[in-house]
Design brief:
By secondary structure, this protein is α/β, with parallel strands linked by helices. It contains 23 helices and 24 strands. It is globular, with a radius of gyration of 29 Å.
C-alpha cells in the first residue's frame, strides 16, 4: 500500500452566519444605514423596471432586486478611497458605493434623502436611460457605471472582465502605501472564467488587497449552477490559490458585513487577497420585469421560498425585534425611497405628444450626436510642453548603438526620471533583459518596478489597465509575441481600448503595450503575426512602429507621455542591427502626425513601416524607380500623418502600401481604403499593396519565406505600379 497523507489548504475557508447576539451587538446606526440603503436601491431598481416596461430603457435592465444584501453588507463599511467594480448586474453595487460615499456619517431614517443622495439617484437613473447628465454622459448605460470620486471603478458587461482591472487597482493601492482595498464583484457564471482565476493567482502571488466577491445567485441566465460546476460552493476557488475565503448567506446583510470585516482585516494588514461568496437570489429574470418562472427555468415555488428571505424584510424584522424601529417607521423609509425616485424621474420625462397616455424622455436631455466620437482618444495636448526633434531632418551629432540597446536605454532614462513607470511581462526580469535584451539592466536599476509576471496575459494586461485608470502609475506591458494578445483580447480591446470613451471620455488611460514582430525567426504560426491591422481597426489605441533606433527613442518618449493606450511594435530583424541615435539625447519626442520621407521621388508613393522601410529602400534602389518613400511611424487613424501622404499623392498620383504580414489581418487594407476615399481625384490607378499571403508563417524555412513579404515582393509591387502607369 502506498503511503498517503491528507493535504490541507494553506488558507482558511469558513462559513459565517449570524446569531441573535450578533444582531444585538450591531451598531444601531449601522443597521439603520443598511436598511436605508436597501430601500433606496430597491426603489431605484423597481423604477428602472417600470421604465423598461414603458420602453424607455434602451438596452438591458439587469435588475438586482433580491441581491441587494450582498452589495450593501459588503460596501457599507468601506472608505471612499476603497474601490469596487462589478459586472453587468451592478446597479446595487454602484449605488451602495455612491450612497456610502455621500453619506459619510450614515443614513438618518427620519430624513433619508439628502440633496446629495437625490443627486446620486437622478444621475444614476439618467445614465441608465442614456442621458447626457449621467455619470458617463449616457455612454455607459446600465452595464457601465463609473464614478471614480466615490471609488466606483466601473461595472462591466464582459463576464469576469473586471477581475484583472480590480487587481491592478489593488496593486496601486498597495504600492502607494495605503491600507485601502478593492472588491471585484461577479456572479456564479464568472467563477470559472479564466480572467478571474488568473487574477486570483496573481493577487495571491503578489499579496494584493483585493476581494473576489462571488454573488452566487445559482443561475447564469437560465443555466443552473449544478450544470456548470462539480462543487457549487464557489468560494472553494480560493483554496486553489491559497486565498482565505468566506461563505455567507447573502440574504443576511449583517452576515455579509461581518464576513467582509474579517476579510478586510486580512487585506488591510498586508495579508493579500480574499474570496467571499454570498448566496443571493435575483427575484427577476436575467433582464427585464418578469420572473424566471415565466421562462420555465425556475418554479414559482422556488421563487416564493426565496422571497421569504428578502434582505429588506430581514433587516427590518431584526430591527423591530430590537426596538430600533416599528412597522410605521419601516413604511416611512419605504415611502421616502419611493418619493425620492419620483423626484429623480420627473425631470427626465414628459408626456409623449405623439402617443396619448405615454411618456417619453425629454428630448433636450439626450447627448449631442456630435459627442459620439469625443474621447475615443485624448487630444495629445499633454505633449505640447515636450521637446520635439525629428531624427530624419535633424543635423544633431549621432552615436552608434544597436537598435535593442536603444530600446533598453530610453526605458532606463524614462524610469529614472519618472518613478510612476512600472514594467510588467513574462521573463522581463530574467535572461539579462528578457528574451531579446529589450529590458537589459532595468531589473538591476529598478528591482521593484520591473515585475516578472506569471504566464497569465489576461491577468497582467488587465492589471496594467487597472493601474492606468488609477492614475498613480504608468504601466508598460510587454507581450513576448503579438499572437499572445489573443489570449488577453478582452482586456486589450474590450477593457483598455474602450475604457476612456465608454465611461464618458474624460478618464485617461496612460498605458504602453510593447510587442515584437518576429517574422523570419522560425517560430511558426502562433508567434509571428503583425498586430498593426487589428489595432488600427479597434477603438482607443494609438500605434507606433519605429524603423530606426533614433525614431524609437522619440516615439517611445511620446508614447510614455500620452494619456492614451499606445501599442509600440518592434521587429526582431532590427534588434541586432547597428544603428545610430542622437548623441547624448534620450529626451525628445516624435509626436503623432509626424511621418518621415525617407526618399523623395515623383513616380509613385511607397508607404511602409518597421523593417519593411529598409526592404522598400532596397527594392527602389534595385529597380531604379523614382519613388517617394514614406515611413509612417504613427499608424493609428488619429495619429497618422495625412498631410505628408496627401502632398506625396498629389505629386506622384500612385500609391504602393508595403507590409510584411498576412493579407487577412492587413494594416494596408484599411489604409488603402482611406487613401482612395480621401485622394481619389489625384490617383491615376488603384492603390496597390504588398503583403504576405493568407496563411500565417510556418516553421519550415521555405514555407515561412513564402508566407511573408521582403525585398523581392516589394520589387514586384513597384513593377506593377510602374506597369499600370505605363498602360494609363
Amino acid at each position: 500500500m502506498p503511503k498517503q497523507r491528507r493535504l490541507e489548504s494553506t488558507a482558511p475557508w469558513v462559513e459565517l452566519s449570524t446569531t441573535a447576539a450578533d444582531w444585538k451587538a450591531a451598531d444601531p446606526a449601522l443597521l439603520a444605514t443598511m436598511l436605508g440603503q436597501l430601500h433606496l436601491i430597491r426603489a431605484f431598481e423597481e423604477r428602472v423596471l417600470d421604465l423598461a416596461g414603458e420602453g424607455l430603457v434602451h438596452g438591458p435592465a439587469h435588475s438586482s432586486i433580491g441581491q441587494e444584501g450582498g452589495a450593501v453588507g459588503s460596501i457599507v463599511g468601506l472608505r471612499s478611497s476603497d474601490a469596487v467594480n462589478g459586472s453587468h448586474r451592478g446597479h446595487h453595487q454602484f449605488l451602495a458605493k455612491a450612497l456610502t460615499h455621500v453619506a459619510q456619517g450614515g443614513l438618518d431614517l427620519d430624513a433619508l434623502v439628502t440633496a446629495d443622495i437625490q443627486t446620486v439617484l437622478q444621475k444614476t437613473l439618467a445614465e441608465i436611460l442614456g442621458l447626457a447628465q449621467g455619470y458617463c454622459r449616457g455612454r455607459g448605460g446600465s452595464m457601465h457605471l463609473q464614478w471614480f470620486e466615490a471609488g466606483a471603478l466601473g461595472t462591466n458587461a464582459i463576464v469576469g472582465g473586471g477581475a484583472p482591472m480590480a487587481t491592478g487597482n489593488a496593486w496601486a493601492q498597495k504600492r502607494s502605501g495605503t491600507t485601502d482595498l478593492t472588491i471585484n464583484y461577479f456572479g456564479d457564471g464568472a467563477a470559472q472564467i479564466g480572467s478571474v482565476l488568473e487574477s486570483m493567482n496573481l493577487a495571491a502571488a503578489w499579496k494584493l488587497p483585493v476581494c473576489f466577491f462571488v454573488e452566487n445567485n445559482f443561475y447564469a441566465v437560465a443555466t443552473r449552477i449544478e450544470e456548470s460546476v462539480a462543487d457549487t460552493r464557489l468560494s472553494v476557488r480560493g483554496m486553489g490559490f491559497g486565498i482565505p475565503s468566506w461563505r455567507v448567506d447573502g440574504m443576511d446583510p449583517l452576515a455579509v458585513h461581518l464576513a467582509m470585516e474579517q476579510a478586510a482585516e486580512v487585506m488591510r494588514s498586508g495579508g493579500g487577497p480574499a474570496v467571499a461568496e454570498a448566496e443571493v437570489y435575483r427575484f427577476f429574470h436575467q433582464n427585464g420585469p418578469y420572473p424566471g418562472s415565466a421562462f420555465g427555468y425556475r418554479t414559482k415555488e422556488e421563487e416564493a421560498e426565496w422571497k421569504k428571505r428578502d434582505p429588506l424584510e430581514r433587516v427590518a424584522r431584526e430591527m423591530i425585534k430590537l426596538g430600533l424601529i416599528d412597522e410605521a417607521g419601516v413604511e416611512s423609509v419605504r415611502a421616502q425611497a419611493v418619493a425620492a425616485m419620483d423626484a429623480a424621474t420627473e425631470p427626465l420625462l414628459e408626456a409623449d405628444p405623439e402617443k396619448q397616455g405615454r411618456r417619453r424622455i425629454r428630448p433636450e436631455l439626450w447627448p449631442d450626436p456630435n459627442f459620439v466620437d469625443v474621447g475615443v482618444r485624448g487630444d495629445a495636448s499633454e505633449l505640447e510642453s515636450l521637446t520635439v526633434l525629428d531624427p530624419s531632418t535633424s543635423q544633431a551629432a549621432r552615436e552608434e548603438t544597436k537598435f535593442v540597446d536603444a530600446v533598453a536605454g530610453v526605458m532606463e532614462r524614462r524610469m529614472s526620471q519618472d518613478d510612476r513607470i512600472v514594467v510588467l511581462g513574462e521573463d522581463i526580469h530574467r535572461l539579462k533583459g528578457g528574451t531579446n535584451g529589450a529590458t537589459k539592466g532595468l531589473a538591476d536599476a529598478f528591482p521593484d518596478r520591473i515585475l516578472g509576471t506569471p504566464i497569465s496575459e489576461n491577468a497582467f494586461m488587465g492589471l496594467g489597465g487597472g493601474l492606468a485608470l488609477d492614475g498613480r502609475y504608468r504601466p508598460v506591458i510587454e507581450f513576448m509575441y503579438p499572437d499572445f494578445m489573443w489570449v488577453a483580447a478582452d482586456q486589450v480591446f474590450n477593457q483598455v481600448g474602450k475604457a476612456r470613451h465608454m465611461f464618458g471620455g474624460d478618464n485617461p488611460v496612460p498605458l504602453v503595450l510593447r510587442t515584437k514582430v518576429a517574422m523570419g525567426s522560425g517560430y511558426g504560426s502562433q508567434h509571428l503575426m503583425d498586430p498593426a491591422g487589428i489595432f488600427a481597426t479597434s477603438p482607443g489605441w494609438r500605434i507606433v512602429a519605429p524603423s530606426s533606433a533614433a525614431d524609437y527613442v522619440g516615439l517611445m518618449n511620446a508614447a510614455l507621455a500620452l494619456q492614451d493606450p499606445v501599442l509600440v511594435i518592434e521587429h526582431v530583424d532590427l534588434y541586432g542591427e547597428k544603428d545610430e541615435v542622437i548623441a547624448g539625447d534620450l529626451d525628445y519626442i516624435i509626436p503623432p502626425g509626424t511621418a518621415a520621407v525617407r526618399r523623395e521621388g515623383a513616380e509613385m508613393t511607397v508607404i511602409s513601416y518597421l523593417s519593411m522601410v529598409r526592404h522598400c529602400a532596397e527594392a527602389i534602389e534595385q529597380t531604379g524607380v523614382d519613388a517617394e518613400l514614406i515611413d509612417l511611424r504613427w499608424l493609428d487613424r488619429a495619429s497618422i500623418d495625412w498631410a505628408t501622404i496627401e502632398a506625396s499623392v498629389k505629386k506622384t498620383n500612385a500609391v504602393l502600401i508595403v507590409e510584411q504580414g498576412a493579407i487577412g489581418t492587413s494594416y494596408g487594407g484599411w489604409l488603402a481604403d482611406e487613401i482612395q476615399r480621401r485622394f481619389f481625384d489625384w490617383l491615376d490607378q488603384p492603390v496597390q499593396r504588398v503583403t504576405g499571403t493568407e496563411s500565417s508563417p510556418s516553421i519550415s524555412r521555405v514555407l515561412e519565406r513564402a508566407a511573408i513579404a521582403r525585398t523581392e515582393e516589394v520589387v514586384a509591387g513597384l513593377e506593377t505600379v510602374r506597369r499600370n502607369a505605363g498602360g494609363a
